[in-house]
């Protein structure tokens, strides 16, 4: 029987990782239960604004052939899940609430439209657990666990454009040790694989983007659009420790799918055209933009180029903003900007006219009372100011944060799918199946 499986919330802030669990699970299912992996695993990034989720907020989708019922498979996977969160990630002690969801393939095909809608809601909104459970019951999805059920169901419905991520995992004895990765090798890898890989290195702060900061099992992760180029990382990137195992996931990262469905409520994404009323630069460099409709927008210093561009905006500029709606104790509701597109620049200034006699500047005599030359004191009876075109240090177009969110599509990234890419997926799937049989992880 063919099944689609969703898994979520097996990580914690210090130990464990849902992707790590998914690879170990696949190894167990193939080696111990004669399952067959039918497609590459899928790393599904969900709403990045959920405050109780980790910054990456990811679930996993797996497609397998399994000789057993949906209930038997759910019980089997949940037994491995329970062992992982108790013995490896200690997720339950850190308020994680793992879950899983399983749907038969034929039912998946029939329910695809509903599943896709649930997925989009999971990427862009907040989904209550009760809603997810009712959805599972109506759609005949077998679920186990708690809050992780939400992301697990969302993973079942992932669709559309995708990229890949190669993730390497550390041996357990190294988890609490500092990661040491040769930064020059990361830069070399970036140079030889760009633009087929992205977000590898921060050339402003001279730090690799590929290294996580916690004590989780991941050594490094590399994102891109070419499996062939991603695999080069295993040879090009130099570390001081042996890799335990690795995987390449399909992923919705780098697709900007989170802006496919927008809203006006907290923790939703928003996409709207505004007219700038004022721009304020804070002491730390953060930029506060107020719109003529009383929107409060923040562009943080860490966004780099986006922050620099925001400082140059002025009243009258029209921009298309993309960002996240967040609650604020000071402003009640704010929009944290991820990107904006300048649609119209206000390049007009109204100035006092020059003196027609001596050419000097003038001063206003008051509302509708004309102007007086500051030098020769000549009176101009006209009260009309002069329209002056001014040069701006901005141009029409899109400005984006330097530090990408997982879902953000870099401006240069082209998502095209070729026959070679599909052939590479098939080749990797054969390689990955063989690698899964080599994993010996005690659960």
UniProtKB/TrEMBL annotation:
Record InterPro entries: TiaS-like_TCKD, TiaS_FLD, tRNA_Ile2__agm2C_synt, Zn_ribbon_TiaS
Keywords, ordered alphabetically: ATP-binding, Cytoplasm, Ligase, Nucleotide-binding, tRNA processing
A Gene Ontology molecular function term of the record: ATP binding
Subcellular location: Cytoplasm
Signal sequence region: none
TiaS C-terminal zinc ribbon domain location: 352-394
Domain TiaS FLD: 146-258
GO biological process, one term: tRNA wobble cytosine modification
Domain TiaS-like TCKD: 4-143
Catalytic activity entry: cytidine(34) in tRNA(Ile2) + agmatine + ATP + H2O = 2-agmatinylcytidine(34) in tRNA(Ile2) + AMP + 2 phosphate + 2 H(+)
A GO CC term assigned to this protein in UniProt: cytoplasm
Superkingdom in the source lineage: Archaea
EC number(s) recorded for this UniProt protein: 6.3.4.22
Family from the record: Belongs to the TiaS family.
Family annotation (HAMAP family): tRNA_Ile2_agm2C_synt (MF_01892)
Function statement: ATP-dependent agmatine transferase that catalyzes the formation of 2-agmatinylcytidine (agm2C) at the wobble position (C34) of tRNA(Ile2), converting the codon specificity from AUG to AUA.
Name this protein carries in UniProt: tRNA(Ile2) 2-agmatinylcytidine synthetase TiaS
């Amino acid at each position: 029987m063919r099944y689609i499986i969703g898994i979520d919330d097996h990580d914690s802030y210090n130990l464990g990782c849902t992707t790590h669990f998914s690879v170990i699970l696949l190894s167990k299912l193939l080696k111990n239960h004669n399952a067959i992996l039918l497609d590459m695993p899928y790393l599904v990034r969900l709403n990045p604004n959920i405050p109780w989720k980790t910054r990456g907020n990811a679930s996993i989708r797996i497609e397998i052939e399994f000789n057993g019922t949906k209930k038997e498979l759910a019980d089997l996977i949940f037994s491995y899940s329970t062992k992982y969160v108790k013995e490896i990630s200690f997720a339950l002690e850190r308020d994680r609430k793992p879950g899983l969801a399983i749907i038969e393939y034929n039912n998946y095909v029939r329910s695809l439209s509903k599943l896709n809608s649930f997925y989009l809601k999971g990427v862009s909104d907040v989904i209550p657990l009760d809603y997810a459970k009712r959805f599972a019951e109506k759609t005949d999805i077998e679920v186990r666990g708690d809050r992780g059920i939400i992301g697990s169901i969302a993973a079942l419905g992932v669709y559309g454009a995708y990229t890949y991520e190669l993730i390497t995992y550390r041996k357990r004895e190294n988890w609490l040790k500092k990661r040491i990765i040769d930064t020059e090798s990361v830069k070399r890898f970036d140079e030889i694989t760009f633009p087929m890989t992205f977000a590898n290195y921060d050339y402003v702060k001279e730090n690799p983007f590929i290294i996580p900061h916690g004590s989780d099992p991941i050594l490094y992760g590399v994102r891109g659009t070419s499996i062939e180029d991603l695999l080069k990382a295993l040879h090009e990137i130099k570390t001081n420790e042996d890799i335990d195992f690795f995987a390449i996931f399909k992923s919705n990262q780098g697709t900007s799918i989170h802006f496919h469905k927008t809203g006006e409520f907290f923790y939703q994404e928003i996409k709207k055209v505004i007219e700038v009323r004022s721009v304020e630069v804070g002491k730390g460099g953060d930029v506060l933009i107020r719109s003529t409709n009383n929107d409060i927008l923040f562009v943080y210093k860490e966004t780099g180029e986006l922050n620099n561009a925001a400082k140059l905006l002025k009243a009258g500029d029209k921009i298309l903003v993309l960002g996240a709606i967040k609650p604020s104790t000071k402003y009640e509701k704010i929009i944290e900007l991820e990107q904006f597109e300048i649609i119209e620049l206000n390049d007009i200034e109204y100035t006092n006219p020059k003196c027609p006699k001596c050419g000097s500047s003038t001063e206003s005599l008051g509302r509708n009372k004309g102007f007086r030359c500051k030098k020769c004191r000549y009176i101009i009876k006209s009260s009309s100011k002069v329209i002056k075109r001014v040069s701006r240090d901005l141009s029409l177009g899109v400005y984006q944060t330097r530090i990408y969110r997982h879902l953000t599509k870099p401006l240069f990234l082209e998502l095209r799918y070729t026959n070679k890419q599909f052939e590479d997926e098939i080749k990797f799937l054969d390689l990955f199946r063989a690698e899964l049989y080599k994993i010996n992880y005690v659960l």
